Each structure stands twice: as structure tokens, then as C-alpha cells.
Amino acid sequence: MRRPAHLVLTGILAMGALVSCAEEPGTAGSDGSGNGGGSGMGKVAFLMPDLASTRYEQYDAPLFKKRMGTLCQECQVIYQNADSDAALQQQQANSAMAQGAKVIVLDPVDSESASTIVQMAHSQSVKVIAYDRPVSKKPADFYVSFDNEAIGEAIGRSLVGHLERTGAKGGLLQVNGSPTDAAAGLIKKGIHKAVDDSGFDLLAEYDTPDWSPEKAQQWVSGQIAQHPGRIAGVVAANDGTGGGAIAAFKGAEVKVPPVTGNDAELAAVQRVVSGDQYNTISKPIRTVAEAAAVAAHQLMKGEKPEADTTLFDTPSQLFEPTVVTRDNVGKVVLGPGRVFKAADVCTRVYADDCRRLGIE
User: Which residues contact 209 (CB under 8 A, 6 or more apart)?
Assistant: First the structure.
């Protein structure tokens, strides 16, 4: 049974200060060279899916490396990013196994085709941890993520509640994530749970190839022309597509309706502070990155990580998301022990908005 998703608008899993992107002792460089200074006691590959989101380079990889370094000083991390190329990610996985990786932590570009990576790894007695996005056709050994269906439901219900409170009229646009990403499918499912019976008509929805903000912007621009004055809100599956939607309204020189997001990226938090974006989801990357490192270390030692549910026939550890709006942004993502410092967000452009929200 899945743990209940107690969705709240306040509180957060502590993330702590962001770590430096500098290499940690005993880890490999981002080129996957493996020259981390360790004795080769164990190697783990950390394979991320794209560069469209800034999180992988800035947060996931350095946080994972740091935690692995504390768990196993002699272990090496082979880090690669596939830049939205599923074939390249397959090559990177093969290369990591050729270098002796015993565990692959995989955030798949394509959740279905990644089954080939799992199958190849298992044929070589290499364990696979699905990270953030599940592998849908071939069970991995473990899955670590935030609850993606709960994320979709959370941003959708938050938006609908806001529209009801403000007496908004019109319908909704739904901007989903990549059709090749099973996690995007879960977010999409959660959004539909929130909006289908909301009383707001779904004017149109779009599955955004590669989570591309530019493609989301182009699609929303077309919908603005097709439904003039009728769009009450936009349920966007992440901050990138949400930012694309906002850019479309600004480009059309019409009022930006409430738009959702997910990931609490810096630019999105600034949009929430300014009022351009209605909400985002805080899911501290430290939580999943460190959980993946612990699970990888356990698998390297022949131990079985503890799961709290099963998803896609895979033992899974799912964490709960937190919705962020202007009402709680100062408490959730800013300040000591949070994702950002006020100085990160409250630059000159956003200084007045921060003061109005009591953020210093």
C-alpha cells in the first residue's frame, strides 16, 4: 500500500544549505573518468536525463556525490548527463558498466526504453536504482522519488482552490511533461484527479516533448489565440513548462492567469514571489539524492534497501511533496536550513516583492 500523501501548504523536509559543485573525495569527475582518487573498492554510476532543468548539474549530482563520499570514501561516482538523448544514455550506461560500476542510479530519458539498460545491467549482475523517474517496462532493483502522482494532484488542487476563492471564470489549460517520462505520466494522472471534477472545463492539454519550455510556450501561445479571454488558469507539470506558459501570456500582452509549477527552481521561486507564478512544489533534492546514495551503498554491500511501497513492480521509497505559494514561500524555501537564502531570491528586481512578503 502507498503511504498517504498528506499534502500541506506549510512545512518542509529540511534540505540544508546547497553544497558546492566541487568534487568530493573519492568521487569521479563529471566526465566519468573515474579519477576520484579512490582505490576502486566500488563504483556507482549516476546517470541523469537532461540539461533542460538546471537541477541535475547544480544539485542532484553534487549532493549524491557528497553523500556517497561520506558513506564510502574509497568508492567512485561516474556521473553523466544524457541531454535528452535516450540512445546516448544507453551508451553511458554501457560505458559505466565497462568501467566496473556495480550499481547504476538511473533517471531515464525514456522510461520505456530504459528497460534495455536494466536488462543489460542485470545480465552483468549490476544493480539499478530508478531515480525520480521510474523504469516502466522492466523492474529496477529499487526506486527513489517524490510521489509524482501526489505532486500532480497537489498543484492541481491548489490552483482550483485559488480559482474558486477568487471567483474566477473560464477553463483550464493542462501542460504535461514529456510523453516518454513515466513520472510525467504520474503527474498527469494526479492533475486529472484534481481538475476533472473541479467545475472548470479543461480547454486543452499538451504532452510537452522533452519537458521543453520553448515547446510549452509555443503551444500555450496557440491556445491563447484559440481561447481569447477564456483561460482561467494553467496547470503546468513543472517550473520549466510553467515558465514557458507565463512567457506565452506576456508575449501575447494579455494578463497572466494563475500558473502552476513543480521543482522550486530559483527562477520559479522568484516568479512566485513576484506573483507571476501561482505555485510550485518544494521537493528538497537532498532528500532523494541522499536516499539514493544510501540505497546504492546498501546494494553494493549485498543488502536490500527498505521500501515503503511498490511502484511499477519495483520496491520504492516515495517522499511527500509540499506546495509553495506566496503565502508560505518565506517559510518553506528561504532561510537557514532551506533551499535558498533570501539574498538568492531577493535580487534588485524582486526586492520590493520580498519586502511586501516580509522576506528579508
Answer: 178, 179, 215
Contact (CB, 8 A) for 12 and 264 = no
What residue has cell string 520559479? 268
Q: Over 90: is that where the pLDDT of 25 sits? A: no
DSSP string computed for 145-200: EE-HHHHHHHHHHHHHHHHHHTT--SEEEEEE--TT-HHHHHHHHHHHHHHTTSSS
Residue tagged 547544480 (cell numbers): 58
173 neighbors 220 (Cβ within 8 angstroms): yes
Beta carbons of 130 and 106 less than 8 angstroms apart: yes
pLDDT, one tens digit per residue, over 279-325 is 999 988 899 999 999 999 999 999 999 999 999 999 999 999 899 99
Cell numbers placing 301: 554491500
Element (H, E) at 288: helix 285-300
HEC per residue, 69-134: HHHCCCEEEEEEECCCCHHHHHHHHHHHHHCCCCEEEECCCCCCCCHHHHHHHHHCCCEEEEECCC
Confidence check: pLDDT of 38 > 90: no
Residue 5 to residue 321: CA distance in whole angstroms: 8
Cell 549490476 belongs to residue: 126
